Predict the structure.
Amino acid sequence: MLPAMKVKWGVLGAARIATQKVVPAMQCGEWSEVVAIASRDAAKGAAAAAALGIARSYGAYEALLADPEVEAIYNPLPNHLHVPWTARAAEAGKHVLCEKPIGMNAAEAETLLEVRDRTGVHVQEAFMTRVNPQWLRVVDEVRSGRIGDVRAVSGVFSYFNDDPANIRNQVECGGGALMDIGCYLINTARAIFRREPQRVSGSIERDPRSGTDILTALTMDFAPGQATGMCSTQLVPAQRVIVYGSRGRIDVEVPFNAPPDRPCRVFVDDGNTLQGGWKDTIEFETCNQYTVQGDLFSRAVRGLGPLPYPLEDSVLNMRVIDAVFKAARTGRWEKP
């Protein structure tokens, strides 16, 4: 077998998600090689490059996009910069893996479809859960009919961060619980039901200082079947997803921040006891979902497979997010 022709990556910005999670994971990949990083703070970029063993650092994003060796860009910039810099990278002929959410709203995200089609590059939103083996198995278990007809999905995702300097607490940057982590609840529910919700409702509690949503509850009506979710940026850290069927249920222990240093577990229960007498515990080999994500994208760049998560699906996810925000304002069910 021929050795992998690694795709050479550049990173826009020195965000913590990049320097602490995604880039180190991609550096362990078979198909990905990070060769450059850019930061508007040149010293910060140089420090990140040194710490990660990256060959080059730039003090401007434009300089990174002009680097002829860089084939693909990872964009972990604040939410309001996702579409502008993804578009600029695509115009420079670079493939782009952009952090979620793909844009500030669905209309903005849709503009990337035209950019992608015109430039001929790959553009994907970085929903790493969509390539994680545990989620692929959950979807397979649902489709096999093992738990009967899916009737409901219940999810929670929360953490505590009230730092006003953090971009997640800045409305103008696209901060707030729904955009940052609620998007996962929506994305996984859509994947489980394999269709779009006909209507959604939402209830939002906002921080009186920042204006961001710090506690958001949502319901998605998939007719038949419903999904409910709660996300918060000022709550004890927690995450869980349970899929309820007519003959059983599936419990995903750590659905989103899957640990890279130990196996993930999914429990399938036939529902015979309310005390949780699990019928089957499915344990997955230890893997890093960010490594998998980077390698699958790189393989697509090399023409060795499709993108695992199409941009059109990202636009649909943004439409649901938009509808939840609208429903919270109107107090009514809203259609995505």
Notes: The first helix runs from residue 16 to 26.
